[in-house]
């Protein structure tokens, strides 16, 4: 920033400030306002046709990413559902009833129970991140509903805090991977990349909210157009385009990555099975085909 | 668990690409269907900043001016909230100013659209200041 030739810089006198304010503050003010102008891509306001093209391109990318996400996750879930789990291996102590399994799964998904038992730091940061993200995602419904659903309006203020919680959680999880020797040793590149990607998504969102704002009214028109197949111009602000591109990348790699733990937890045999080997005899499918031995009993 | 092979991955990518393209070719209904805020016309010739800048940064300007005014005692008129209201307030059929944060008015229209709460008017006036000489 160029040095402002204002005597106010040299003098701290409030009185002088007040007396000379109208004459000096106007040009200085204008200057600051210019400095705070957000660069719109190359610093110029792009014509509407370009913005519409941009919106259309991003709409196409989003449709592609959504198709990959839905088909990919669907295929994975179908595979999880078909994968045989012939042995009864719930981690004990385990519930003995269906209701108990539902309750255990609820605690697992909502409170990350076994993570809590396993590692307090991972639990703290993981839980902060996941529930920050949940609220932030819910907050994003304001872009897709018109009129905005009332509960979405009500949670808007929580979202501001939740976004920081999400960022802090991710930063903590990444710090753990870098700073803890044992964890660093077992961390694969994909572990780091997932955290980097999510952190960049959260970071670009925070930048947009708190520093380099975008035109959220136009953005909402774009989002509404996206879900009604009626493409609208997209504001060409760098943080927004980065944010959206990273989300598209996330959707694309979701079905092929460790992020599949989201649907996967429900298919986890150590969590979704009942501890009932005494009440029910479990016979593996291959064992059913064996010829029955007559008169033979265990230990006879 | 078996992993997805390269061939399957290719097929899957192609299918997704086709699905993505097909949705792009769906008939365009025109721009009328997408709801956008309809704000009332302003009085003045031109805003204090270009429209594109105001749409992004108006609250920063106001907050900046608030700090300048309240903390440092510098009163500038460039980004004053009163200036916004002077240009953007509308009158109803009986000639009375409508509060600018009323539903359908300048501030509220977009803020409702984007689900953003306005804090300004718990303190500030929502209609232009009426000069004593002009009052009937």
Describe what you observe in this structure:
The complex is a heterodimer of chains A (300) and B (136). In chain A, 66% of the residues lie in helices and 0% in strands. Chain A has 300 residues and is mostly helical. Chain B contains four helices and no strands. The radius of gyration of chain B is 24 Å and the shape is elongated. The chains are: A mainly alpha (300), B mainly alpha (136). At the A-B interface, helix 2, helix 3 and helix 11 of A face helix 1, helix 2 and helix 4 of B.
Give the helices and strands, then pairings.
The complex is a heterodimer of chains A (300) and B (136).
Chain A: H1 7-10, H2 14-35, H3 48-82, H4 98-111, H5 113-118, H6 120-139, H7 150-154, H8 156-179, H9 181-186, H10 189-210, H11 216-227, H12 238-253, H13 261-264, H14 269-272, H15 285-288
Helix pairs in contact in A: 3-12, 6-8, 8-10, 10-12
Chain B: H1 6-25, H2 51-72, H3 81-88, H4 106-113
Strand content of chain B: under 5%
Report the oligomer: heterodimer
Shape of chain A: elongated
Q: Kindly state the mean pLDDT of chain B as a whole number? A: 80
Task: Summarize the entry for a quick read.
The complex is a heterodimer of chains A (300) and B (136). With 300 residues, chain A is mainly α.
Keywords:
heterodimer, A: about 300 residues, 15 helices, elongated, B: about 140 residues, mainly alpha, about 0% strand
